[in-house]
From TrEMBL:
<dbReference type="Pfam" id="PF04107">
    <property type="entry name" value="GCS2"/>
</dbReference>
<protein>
    <recommendedName>
        <fullName>Putative glutamate--cysteine ligase 2</fullName>
        <ecNumber>6.3.2.2</ecNumber>
    </recommendedName>
</protein>
<dbReference type="InterPro" id="IPR014746">
    <property type="entry name" value="Gln_synth/guanido_kin_cat_dom"/>
</dbReference>
<keyword id="KW-0436">Ligase</keyword>
<keyword id="KW-0067">ATP-binding</keyword>
<dbReference type="GO" id="GO:0042398">
    <property type="term" value="P:modified amino acid biosynthetic process"/>
</dbReference>
<keyword id="KW-0547">Nucleotide-binding</keyword>
<dbReference type="InterPro" id="IPR050141">
    <property type="entry name" value="GCL_type2/YbdK_subfam"/>
</dbReference>
<dbReference type="GO" id="GO:0004357">
    <property type="term" value="F:glutamate-cysteine ligase activity"/>
</dbReference>
<comment type="similarity">
    <text>Belongs to the glutamate--cysteine ligase type 2 family. YbdK subfamily.</text>
</comment>
<comment type="function">
    <text>ATP-dependent carboxylate-amine ligase which exhibits weak glutamate--cysteine ligase activity.</text>
</comment>
<dbReference type="GO" id="GO:0005524">
    <property type="term" value="F:ATP binding"/>
</dbReference>
<dbReference type="InterPro" id="IPR011793">
    <property type="entry name" value="YbdK"/>
</dbReference>
<dbReference type="InterPro" id="IPR006336">
    <property type="entry name" value="GCS2"/>
</dbReference>
Length: 357
């Protein structure tokens, strides 16, 4: 497994995002553990840190911590701070067109949709044997992705306004064509044919650009889960990775038993994603399989039951249970941002998700 984390670069005084990625990325990419990389993202006010291939939580935590320290130190040296929030907490310095050709082309294609899009996610990669298997696994993941989102919500503010959502990032992403849970596909050929159709229709820049919350990676032999907001802490990124790997392992076990995933009703899926983005863990969610509302905390319990055997087989059950307990008691990233804002305003919320240099 591996994790990609997207972060914002901000001015420490104003809190506005700053386009310093061109300077911060090469400065951060020095002396990192083998496999860890730092790279550019859609906006020049963003950086992405990717772990190497990890087989256990200890390795993953070490990679995530090293990457975060490197990015924070490089940003400090260039007069900036690194903010681990799914959306800008205080303000934007202006999302100028990217200096990288592919990202500049994306800006041109989507116009105003990307003008203020500085969204940051946490992407989890889990290795699988082949692309057909990857597609079959993605079919199984759909019902559980909204619960992973509810656990991860960490973008309640947008330019100093409380949006009322736990994840404003997901609301912003919903403006792109094809966002949400992936449609059901019978094999990689069907998946690729649909992506090619969307490229031909002109709504995707290329075959590597899809907006679905889980997909076969276009670059790696993995299933990629992309539903979570960037985590404010390493522990919460580890939680997403361990749950993601357990979901993939559970899906593989079901496939070995001949259990194919049923298609997910598209409107129920949209309702589940919206509820998770709106309320996080503090309100109702939608059980996709039953097509009805229930408390988000009950959906988390159902998720843990679903992957319990897989977590036990990798020795991760106790760690995941402990991380979930801490999240329930301390609240999500969105909850913590709001508590900080209640005592110190938007500056306090930004400080709550600023990485230490």
């Amino acid at each position: 497994m591996g994790v990609e984390e997207e972060f914002l670069l901000a001015d420490p005084a104003s809190g506005a995002t700053v386009p310093l990625a061109e300077k911060v990325v090469p400065a951060a990419a020095v002396g990192l553990p083998a496999g860890v990389t730092i790279q550019r993202e859609l906006r020049d006010s963003q950086v992405e840190a990717a772990t190497g291939i990890c087989t256990d939580a200890a390795d993953l935590r070490a990679h995530l911590s090293a990457a975060r320290r490197a990015v924070a130190a490089a940003a400090r040296d260039h007069g900036a701070v690194v903010v681990a929030s799914g959306s800008p907490v205080r303000g934007s310095g202006g999302a100028v067109p990217s200096s990288l050709p592919r990202f500049a082309a994306i800006d041109e294609r989507y116009g105003e949709v990307t003008r203020d899009y500085e969204a940051c996610g946490c992407h989890v990669h889990v290795g699988v044997t082949d692309r057909d298997t990857a597609v079959a696994v993605v079919n199984h993941l759909g019902p559980w992705l909204p619960t992973l989102l509810a656990l991860s919500v960490n973008s309640p503010f947008f330019r100093e306004r409380d949006t009322g959502y736990g994840s404003w990032r997901i609301v912003q992403q919903s403006r792109f064509p094809g966002s949400g849970l992936a449609p059901y596909h019978r094999g990689h050929a069907a998946f690729r044919a649909e992506v090619d159709r969307l490229v031909e229709c002109g709504v995707l820049a290329d075959a590597a650009q899809t907006f679905w919350f889980a997909r076969p990676s276009p670059r790696l032999p993995t299933v990629e889960l992309r539903v979570a907001d960037v985590a404010s802490t390493v522990d919460e990124a580890v939680l997403q990775a361990l749950l993601g790997r357990a979901l993939v392992r559970t899906a593989l076990a079901d496939l070995e038993r001949g259990r194919e995933a049923p298609p997910v009703p598209s409107q129920v899926a949209a309702a589940a994603v919206w509820s998770a983005a709106r309320y996080g863990l503090s309100g109702p969610g939608v059980h996709v399989g039953l097509s009805r509302s229930m408390p988000a905390t009950a959906l988390v319990a159902a998720l843990l039951d679903h992957v319990r055997e897989a977590l036990a087989s990798t020795g991760d059950l106790a760690e995941v249970s402990g991380l979930l307990d801490r999240l329930r008691s301390g609240g999500t990233g969105a909850d913590r941002q709001r508590r900080a804002a209640a005592s110190a305003g938007p500056a306090g919320a930004a400080a709550a998700v600023t990485l230490p240099a």
